[in-house]
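Example record used in the benchmark description.
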Amino acid sequence: MHLVTRDDEGWRRSRRLAEVFGDSEPATTTDERPDSDSAEERRGQRDREAWLRDQIPPHHGS
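Model output (structure tokens):
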């Protein structure tokens, strides 16, 4: 007979959440990854920043 403990329930819940939503945090942080300075990544960063600037409502100014 196996008794279900709170630890088992928490583990099952965490596992189910990971199955549904995926991992919420990357396995490594940006300071652990090698620097990547490709032109494509810089262009992607500029595109993301431009998109964010375009989303600012007019009444918030720029």
